[in-house]
Amino acid sequence: MAELADRDPAATIVAIVLAAGFSSRMGAFKPLLPFGERTLVDHIVTNLRAAGVGRIHVVTGFQADALAPELTRLGATRAHNSDFAAGMFSSVRVGVASLPRDIEAFLLAPVDVPLLRPSTMARVLRAAAARDSAIVYPTFRGKRGHPPLVRRSLFAEILSSDGDGGLRTLLARHEDEASEVAVFDWG
Is the pLDDT score of 6 beyond 60? Predict the structure, then answer.
């Protein structure tokens, strides 16, 4: 869309990082797990910023108070999902609801996918600026991955959806409006 091509992507695109879950399979609170010298949430926020995304909204839920100091340190906007036990789609809705009106699209990144390279995210942003697609998926060897970019044209539908089938089902209804960009990042 022209608005993405004509405006600074850092001003028109927000990253929504999903960090509200129970981390039950991990046995520890994922966002604050060490990942090298940093935490998982620090790693993904830092990589998003390196890709040119200046505005980052982190959806909190479980252990939100424990995560708050790290998000403050990182300069990320918190969006709290008080209904986080309802599942990931409830966090997606909270993230979308937290977006200002001037936002044209969001990148969606789960906190537990820290190996996303800044170059991959930047490639998705460049593809979105050059295309009119409602959704831009990064692909590695033909398989879609994170972070997909979702445009404002789908925000209202996300917010009004009952969540049946999750975001994947909702986005699948718009397959004819989606495009893909090949990336070199299996992470």
Answer: no
